Amino acid sequence: MDKQKNWWLVPIVGSAMMLFSGVPSSWGIFRKAVCEEYGFGQDTGAFVLNLTVAAFGVGCVIGGYLQDKKGSFWASIAGSVLLSGGFAAAAFVPQNAVWLFYLAFCIPAGMGCAFLYPAVMSCIQKSNPEKKGLVTGIAGLGFGLSGLAITLAKQLTEPIWGIRGSFLTLAVMVAIICGGGSFFMQSPQQNQAENAQQKFCAKQIVQTKQYRWLFLAVCFAAPSVLLFSPKIVEMAQERDISEQIAVWIVAVAAVFNALGRLTIPAISDKAGRKPTAIGGMLLLAGFSVIFGFVQGWWFFAGYCILCFFYSGNAALLPSFCTDLFGNQWVGVTYGLVALGMTAGSLLSPLLARWIQGEYAVHWIAGISALLAVGCYYKLDIQNSQQKN
Question: Is the pTM of this model over 0.90?
């Protein structure tokens, strides 16, 4: 196979695998149906997202280590089994078994997504180092569109088989698409010269200021969408959007999610990671606040814009990791950075409950995004590359 001629093959396959690994971004479409079917309260249903994201962050470390040690293929296979198994297990959880649902669905689904994401991103970056931002964006396109893919699967199957049937359908689709795509995830071997230049191990990474600033940036960016996503359908109805239209807000926002993941990393190849991240977070901070004061279709548009900038900045993380710490341990590195998402997903709802007020969540999201700007500003990518 001509590597240069077929450089797009691995990113395209990776993008297809990512279509069903964006469970956190699409949970809002499931929440109402799950609460009704399983007898969960509204807060219980919302916490499913936070716990899934938390499992994603922890799983990124474990999956990243597996990817670095055994390769992208085995990490992808493990991720496919976990994610497919999580969907399948959810279909058989009895009513009112909250903790069983958390254990059967949230943990394996979150970790399955986490195993898949760094495995795919690492493989495509190593396969196309000269197009790192572009190929990351192509794979991220699938991750962004996962909200659309999962929404379509749910909307088409739920009227026929119910929400449990939707979960089983998704389990089969993940097994076929993600499991089959894993056979394309074969990372090229690095030569000895490259390995000699990249000796950051996990212990060394967490001891650097660069890691701590990037971890905090990811943590502070999380509230910008995670405070809204679990209840976005209900929020849309409260802002004068009909229920028939509100259920599609996740799907439409997924398109903007995908566009952000495609365009912002590609822009960063030209403009630089740090300036691109800072600009995106400044816009995210502003729109997080404005989002609280709009109604109707402006609310719909506002959420789409939030998804565009949040997802675009999130898609920069794999490139940030390799820019700062090299390619050799990119899986573990991404996992360690993703722990910031875990922290943000668990702490932001607690903060929102503590700070009461109609617009509290919007101010929390906006101020957190500004704090992320400061963290990105402290990164020194040029010196890190020289040290590598």
Answer: no
